[in-house]
């Protein structure tokens, strides 16, 4: 079955461009469009898309609040949110990730990256491009904990291997890449990731990555 996509952007020309790209793919179907966050919420309820391609800055309701209402607590619909940001990295992206977005993508990303990002998010994974993640977190480095700050108690519930996996998730590595790095199977990595999310009360890999930086476990620019 085709992945059902809802396009949300206040610029009709951009929506048209995205539609042309996505409808050229046999496994993607654009089921609707919205010009602001309020329309997005209405369209999600009516159309039940699998993935919402969400702009950040829009009239009436921005993409952060729309994401929060679409994916927040008590929402059991299938919709995943993929946030679109400008090349300069919008200051609201971190809030969108906290609100439940499954990842973010630059608006000027090549067509193949856009298509692949939608497929990744629809499959339940997080879209964490390492280079973008690193730049984003570097931008917020001054607001993140210092290395001297106490480690959150929740981190002490993780095993040593789970901490290793969390650090690699924060660097944007996929399950396959983590498996190769740690010389274990992908199934083992998936199990570790699942334990990390459960123990820390996190929604997905994106929130895990943000948590790793905010807790001071990983520092921007660190390897």
Structural class: alpha/beta
Distance between the termini: 40 Å
How many strand units? 5
Q: So how many helices?
A: 10
Strand order of the largest sheet: 2-1-3-4-5
What composes the largest sheet?
5 strands, parallel
| Sequence of secondary-structure elements | EHEHEHEHEHHHHHH
**Number of structurally distinct domains:** 2
What is the architecture of the largest domain at the second tier of CATH?
A: 3-Layer(aba) Sandwich
CATH secondary-structure class of the largest domain: Alpha Beta
Q: Mean of the pLDDT scores?
A: 82
Pfam families: GerE, Response_reg
Keywords: DNA-binding, Phosphoprotein, Transcription, Transcription regulation
Protein name: DNA-binding response regulator
GO molecular function, one term: DNA binding
Characteristic key phrases:
223 residues; alpha/beta; Rossmann fold; Arc Repressor Mutant, subunit A; 2 domains; 5-stranded parallel beta sheet; 10 helices; globular; transcription regulation
What report would you give on this structure?
The chain has 223 residues and is α/β, with parallel strands linked by helices. The chain has helices at residues 12-23, 37-47, 63-71, 93-99, 111-122, 130-139, 160-170, 175-182, 186-200, 205-214; strands at 3-8, 28-34, 51-55, 80-85, 103-106. A five-stranded parallel beta sheet has the order 2-1-3-4-5, sandwiched between helices. Helix 7 (160-170) packs across helix 9 (186-200). The protein is globular, with a radius of gyration of 17 Å. The N and C termini lie far apart (40 Å).
